[in-house]
Each structure stands twice: as structure tokens, then as C-alpha cells.
Known about the structure:
The protein is an alpha/beta fold. The chain has helices at 6-18, 28-36, 48-77, 79-91, 93-251, 280-297, 304-316, 330-340, 380-386, 410-413, 462-466, 495-501, 511-525, 539-555, 563-573, 582-597, 601-616; strands spanning 319-324, 347-351, 364-367, 372-375, 398-403, 428-430, 438-440, 445-452, 468-472, 578-580, 620-622. The protein has 4 domains: 6-91, no CATH class; 135-252, no CATH class; 253-483, Rossmann fold (3-Layer(aba) Sandwich); 504-625, no CATH class. The strands form 4 sheets. The protein has a 5-stranded parallel β-sheet.
Amino acid sequence: MDIMQDDRILKDYASELLKAKPFNGLTSKGLELLKSSVNMASKSKHNKTRLARALFLLNKSVDWQQERTELFNQLLNSEQGKEQLDEFLNKNEEDFFTKYRIEKFNIVENTINDEITKLKIKESSLRSTIRELGKEADDKRKEQAEMEAEYRAKAEDKVRKELEQEKEELQQEVSRIKEKLFKFKEEYNQYKNLNDLIEKNKKLSDEHAGLTSLNIGLNNTKDDLEKTIVSASTQLTEEYVRVHSLFKAMTSPIKNNVISNLFKEEESEGISRVNNMDSIHSARQEYIDAMEVTLSKYDRNLSREQVVNIVVTLAQSQFTILSGLPGSGKTSLVKIIGKAMQLGSRQHTIPVAKSWTSMKDILGYYNGLSGSYHSAPTGLWDLLNSVQSDDSEKVLPVLLLLDEMNLSSPEHYFSSFLDLADNESKREIFTGHPDIELLSVPDHVKFIGTINQDETVQPLSPRMLDRSAVILFDGVTNNTPVSKDSNIRLPKYPAKDWIDLFSSNGESIPENIKIALENVSNCLSENNIELGQRHIISHRKKKKILDYIEVSNSILIDFDDFISLDHAISQYVLPMISGYGEAYGRRLNNLNEILQIHSMKLSSGILKDIIMIGEQNLYSYKFPA
């Protein structure tokens, strides 16, 4: 019986075996190998029993390691083991991963340091290359400077030689001219005295002939004056009699200064209020349908968008101008619209004359000598006096047509009326009449002007254009017949209802239309010297545009979104165009790009014509009005 303790057996016998390199980290396979090689141990010959015991203890230890691993895996795979492992990791996470993080950080740090080292080496190489290139550049600059100095010296030497040669040639030429001049002087001195005598004799002869002619002329003038005095005496007597009679007529007071009423009472018959003002969109559609049918009866087959544009513009604008070539039917269209609306005498036409210079030519003037008002033969004085008693809920609107209004400058004869377009205007005209100093102009009196595009007319001033809607009219009509009931009659709406029907109600404008209008405004107002003259769309004009778009969009619901903005730009914005220079042409081309992006075909077509004609006229651009 062996009484040696297990730990002593392991110390004395197993330790020597385990020192061998093949058995470090002993496993079950290693233990088998150890058993087969037990005779290799130094103590195996004398103590086989204790050595076998040592092997048994080692085998037992290896079996325990395997059992412990299995138990540990079972524990980790159990729910309780997983919870304990998670709890342990949560509590000891920082300590558990500290070593791993430090190693990871060291690896990253070493990688970064390696990259820094490589970059420093590369930086050093690049700096060296830059220094070499800089040195080469300095050498090149020095070489270039030397070449330039050498070339300059050669050029100066060449120019100096050429100048010296030219100077020498000029001196030779001067010498030759002096020789010729000396010869001429010698030759001239031989004939000088004789020529002086001949010249003096000729001058005296001319003076004698002039005095003789003057004497004859004075005698003739004397005879003419005597005849003129006799004739003038008779004419003065006749002129005195005429002026005296005229003065007597002008200073004789007129007792009855009668103002006639132009309007007939029967013209107000059949007027009816708008019944469906609450559903204003349908009321507008019905009115446009009726206007379209009525115009077609007069052989004016305008497209629907043209009819909407004309009606809305007339109702909203104080001044509407139709511009076009002579004979395009502008005047007749206005008169047909007056007939369609059954205005009668409330559609009044004034043919403008070429010599008008002040308001007295269109309205009249007060004669203080005779104490009477001399109204112009236009009928405007009587018309304005006739509308003073108008009740806008009981009468029709008034369309006042100024035919060929630019034969004379409207800024001169029509200046007192231009303020009517301002919302702040009192809508009153000063007459100079002591009894009727002011005449009010109601909202329902609309002014329409027709202008021709030729060389015989006066251009419209910016002030007039800023207050007007200018519609370009080419006289082209729609060939497609109107497909509506031909029995539709245009209703006779009172002036107030007619204006309210086509007035804006504050409805929202689509955002894409607002953005397009802002793009047009910014393009024209951009302060850039490379784009030439700039234009500012006034607050008054922007409000007109938005009011027009709101109403016309509600009628043209089946048309393109930008159709109303297209018409508004063509008649409110494009008339502002007036400038010259290539830079201004670039601004107009930028504007045309915006118009094309938003499919505004009407305005783009007008602008293209302006640009084309302007380029042909040495970059002088002007709206045709």
C-alpha cells in the first residue's frame, strides 16, 4: 500500500513528464501519448507503480476539465445561465472590454501613425519637388527677361535706324522744296507790279457795276413801297372793320348757355339686374357666351379667349387702347361692341385731329369776355354734363371712343383725364366755367382709344402707357363658327352690375402664376449694367394684372393655366419696353426665355417681333404703340 499523497505524486512524478514540450497544455490525446511513452521518464524503471498512479491522477484531471466544459456550456445555454451572463456583462462591461478596446485602439493608433509617417514622407517629397519646380520657374523667368531685354534692344535699334533714315529723307525733301520756292519767288517778282495794277483796275470796275445795280434796285424798291402803302391802307381799313365786328360779337353776353342732354330715355328701357350674382362664375360665363354669339352676328367671329380679354379689360380698365395697322378694324370693333351692349348714344365717338394741343380742343373753354362756355365740337362737354345725374344702378355704362387718339399727343389734350386711373383720384375735371367749375367722371365712363402703327402719329408717353391696357389688334378673326345657341341675347345690365360682374373678389391666385409674374418682374427690374435699361412694374400695374387674372381665369377654366397671365403680360407689361443697345437686347432675350418656359405664346411672339425689328434698327427696341 502506497501512502504518498496525491499532490506529492503529481509533484515528483507528473511534473517531470509535463516539462516535455509535446505535453504542454495536456489534453486527452496528449495523455494517451504520454501513457504510450511512459518508459521515457527517468523514474519509470524504479517506481512504475507511482508513475502509473501519477498518470491516473492526470487522466482524472483531464476528464474533469471535459466535464467542467460540458457543465459550463449547459449552464450558458440555459435561460438562467443566459440571464446571469447578461447581468455579469452589464455590470462588468467596462472592465471586460477594456483590454480589447486598448488593443483595438493601439492597432488603430499604429495604423494612423503609419499613415502619418507615409504622408510626411510624401509631403517632404512634394516640397522637394515644388522647390525644384520653383527653381526651374525662376530660371525660366530669368531667361525670358533676358530674351525680352535682348529683343527690346534690337527693336529699339531697328526703329532708331529707320527714324534716322526717314529724317534724312525728309531733310532732303525740304531742301528740294526750298530750291523750288526760291525759283518761284524770283519768277513772281518779275510780274508783281503789272499784276497789282491789273487787279486794282478790275476791283474798281466791279465796285462801279455794284453801285449802278444798287441804284437801280433802290429805285425799284421805292416804286414797290409806294404801291404797298396804297394797298395796305385799303386792307387795314377792311381788317379794322372785321376785328371790330368780331370784338363786338365776343363781348356781347349770351343770355342762354344751353347744355343739351345727349342720352335718350328709351335707351334705359329693358335694363335688368344680374339675378345670379351669388354664383358669379356662371353669370360671367353666360355673359361671355352671349357676347360671343352677338359679335358673330356682326361677322366678328373672335375666339373665346379674345372675347374674354376684351370684355374683362374694358370693364376693369379706365383706359383701353387698341393698337394695330390702319384698316385692321379697331374702330368698327368698338362700335360693334357698343351695338351688342345696346348702348345707343352712350357709346360716343370722338375723332381726334392732328392739331390738338390742349384740353380746349377736346372739351372746350370758357370765354370771360362773352361770359359763355365754348364747347369743342367733339360733344364731350355735353356728354360729361349728361352723366352728372347718372344712377349707376339704372343706366348703362358709357364707352367713349377716341378714334386715332395718337394723331396728336394725348399727354397734351387729354392730360386732365389721366388721373382717373388712380384709385386715389377724386374723378373730377376742372372746366374753368364759373358756374360749373368741376365735372365728375363716374366709374362707368370707360375711355377706349384706337392708335395706328405708322410714321404719321405721335408716340404714347410712359405716363399714358402706365395707366392703360394696350391690346395689339391685327384684325384676324376666328374662322371657326360659334357653336352656341344663336338665339342668346346679350342682357342689358346696369353699369354698376356690369362693372361688379367683372371685378375681382379677392380670390386666391395659383402659386405657379404668382411665381411666373415675379420672375418677369425681377427680369425687367434687375439692376445689372450688362442688361441695359431696367423697368419697374408699378404697384398699380401689378394690382391690375392680378385682378385681370383672377376674373379671366374663372371664365377660361378649360384653357392653359398661364393663358390669362399671357394676355396680362402682353397688354400691361410689354408696352413698357423702350430702350436701345445690345445690353438691353440681352435683357429682352432673358425675358423671352421666361415667357417660353411658362408657355406664354402670345407675349413671346410679340417680344420676338420687337427684338427682331430692334436688331434691324441698330439695337433700338420699342413696343409698337
